Amino acid sequence: MQCSKCSNINVKDADYCSKCGTRLISSGVKPQALKRVLFLIAVLLLAGGFLYYFKGIFLPFEPLVVDHLPGEDKISLDLSEQTDKSAELLSPSVEIKHAPETVSAAPVVPGKIPAHTLPVGDVSIYDPWGNEIAVIASVVVDGSWVALPERACLGGVQWVFRARGSDFRAEIDSGQWRKGDPVGLWHLEKPMDDILRLHPWQAGNVLGWHSLVSGRAEKRLPIKPDWQYGYILHSPVPSHIDEPGVFLQDGRVTGWTFGSWLGGAYLWNRAADRGIEREVTVGDFYSITFAGGREEQFVRALAVDAEIIPAERLQLILDGFRLDAKVDLLDIPESLHPDNMLTEARLLAWELRQGGMANRVVELVREDIFRRIADFDLMKIVAGAQIESRGFASAVNFIENLQDVFLDGGDLSDFQALHVKIYQLWFTQVFSEGDLEKAGEVLSRGRSFFAEDPQLHLDEVELLLARGDWAGAEEMFYSRTYPDKMQKRANRLVDSISRLKGRESKIVLSFSPGSNHIPVTARVNDRVEFAFLVDTGASLVSIPLSLVNDLGLVINKNTPRRTVDTAGGKKEAWLVRLDSLELGGWLVEDVDALVVDIAEERDFGLLGMNFLSRFQMEVDSDEGVLILTPQ
Asked: Is the pTM of this model over 0.70?
């Protein structure tokens, strides 16, 4: 045999070259062929390993080992085949599906749970007023226990399990749960047959999952716990595992999913030889998680008769906001969420206000509520109720007492807009009533908060004009510019300033536009400021008898008398002479006047024509202006 390295000729059956020691290869197998054979073997080995590692994906229907009742042997059942035995293992209400076949449920005998079934049912949670507030799909383990998510049970005082497919019903009386546990095991007051066992989860064992709602099933799930709380391990699950269900290993329950109540898998992690202790009653759970808190009060408000007086329902809701929350915001049922209860409170407050009960709204929604909730929309309703029932002063006090609540909030600009608007409306009301002194006080207070507000700026111009100070009004007006939306009012005030400017050296007196009475104030005998009405139908000035002593006048039997017509008939009056009568800075001396003793005219006098004829009169009733030009 020739050596491939040194070409030495060796004996026929030699294994190594006698010259260089190189291993000799039989001429029947070429080196290239040998390499191909070795490569093929390596590929086959890799393929086998790949299929074994991913057999859960390519070969999903592995046999499922299920525990029988005590005393029976375990059996191995392949769910990929539809057999009579497979049907026996399923609850009538849980149809476990595997594409492309479906395993059917066994017939149900009323009043009896069939052997070898999943004891599935639903737990109804009832609040203290008998309302069903939650329903949770559950499976009974060890004959008397169901796993329930804490957040589904909040607010419940009566929990009732009802089996599917039978008339079995049992109340839940107690359980193993501690504050903060996301999941608790709860005990039925009467047991079912011990059909399905609870067992701690075993890492590395095949883990199957069965839905308690749709019947879907998974034969192999990757589970990797990420945290533990008490006897419960949590693990993420694939996104399609989104229904209440149970995990099974060797036919025993090792964990649960709770659908929308709780995300992920919750695996039992307590030693199999230790029993489940009952640590709390259902009543204890309610007291710890719900009683005496904001949420309980909200439930009470929603539970009352829908026909109850809105004020009483509003009171219940507001009392809830005065309490501290006991339930985490993420766990609160949607109906009890503070945002939804606030919406209800706003609707009730608006209903009361629209129904003429604004004062009741003010009594119920006090400042302390806004320090708890800082709700601007509710505050607007209450501010309006304050104006309607108690006036603008009460409303601005209410607003200003709460400005610190909204100082740093997102509603600050809206709050300020409401604040200044109330001042604007308040000024308008007082000014229209002719109370210029009060209007000035309102304006001064409003401008202390909003010195740059253009609306209040124009209000001050208008007030100066009403006082006859056209020069001050002109200076105030031209000290700033105004937005386009205010140009109409600004132009009107410019016209008013021009008119008053043209009335210099004249007496310009204002009165309520459209009024038939023109009130003025005159100084008599340089002693007394007294109210008069302009009366062009009276020939003489008249004053009441009560003013005589204050003016230093003397009336006796020698005082001339005149008969005058009054609303009560003819009366006698005394004729006197006033030393002076001053109006709007113009003084008229030696003015005859009648002294009358009439009840209706004790608080004012009349300016008759013997005074008015000294002036040229212009009356603009529409604008409310009397102009007296001395002749």
From this structure: no
